Known about the structure:
The complex is a heterodimer of chains A (114) and B (112).
Chain A: E1 4-7, E2 10-14, E3 19-25, E4 32-38, E5 44-51, E6 56-59, E7 62-67, E8 72-77, E9 86-95, E10 100-104, E11 108-113
Parallel strand pairs in A: 2-11
Antiparallel strand pairs in A: 1-3, 3-8, 4-5, 4-9, 6-7, 7-8, 9-10, 9-11
Chain B: E1 4-7, E2 10-13, E3 19-25, E4 31-37, E5 43-51, E6 54-57, E7 64-66, E8 76-78, E9 87-94, E10 102-103, E11 107-111
Parallel strand pairs in B: 2-11
Antiparallel strand pairs in B: 1-3, 3-8, 4-5, 4-9, 5-6, 7-8, 9-10, 9-11
Amino acid sequence: KQEVTQIPAALSVPEGENLVLNCSFTDSAIYNLQWFRQDPGKGLTSLLLIQSSQREQTSGRLNASLDKSSGRSTLYIAASQPGDSATYLCADGKDNNAGNMLTFGGGTRLMVKP
Amino acid sequence: DGGITQSPKYLFRKEGQNVTLSCEQNLNHDAMYWYRQDPGQGLRLIYYSQIVNDFQKGDIAEGYSVSREKKESFPLTVTSAQKNPTAFYLCASSIRGGERAFFGQGTRLTVV
């Protein structure tokens, strides 16, 4: 069964730092890899989606990379801001002919201190 | 405004009761999903549906039921058979074939 692991579980950094969040998955036969943001008590907001044929995706200060061979994805946040404080979840998708089934990691809780 | 709407935001259930969580989307997505999130944990799949009148069990379907009578609606019923229903429930949708998933704002269910 596919397992997705996120390390660290929590991270606290001063404002302005560049930081990397890690996501590892056990089965390299993935369809895509998605990164989400979740604010306390809220739903998930999609940040980036990387198809299995791609190596990375960028949106503003966010850059996500995918290395299928090593079973890893990273989310790079440049020049972090207090507003970036949230939980970040990664999920890998597998196409089982019934749609894209997502398996989620446990998340990294990020706090950016002013 | 396109999106997914879940209601209610908070729901309280007495022991032995069935309760139904609503999920509506106007994104014209074929696929819809229900996830459960427990404190400090990732999301686990309860049920999913790819087309109207069809749905499949996810990893933790016991004690839950769903219906998909309309493309835009995918309600989840938490039955009395679910022994530990207190959790945060999230509904999602996507275009069939593995495109980006969009989530609602969630329903927090508490057993009283």
